What we know:
Helices cover 45% and strands 8% of the residues. It is mainly alpha-helical.
Amino acid sequence: MPVRVTLDAMIVKKGIKARDLAAEVGLSETQLSLFRSGKVKGIRFSTLARLCAALGCRPGDLLDYAYDAADLTVPKDESL
Length: 80
């Protein structure tokens, strides 16, 4: 998938421990770890907002996208 989670870079940049960030935004360390590794299929906007507030950043600082023409093809079983 061309959407990549870049949360680790922001954690390093801010000099915060992942454990402390998880506690501040109300996530378990496991949930935060799964997001950091890109192993989740989605994230709630409210969770993304809490992460941004805690890190003083914008959503684009936590996610990156590499263009893939295949992304313009919508699978039959996928919806919003």
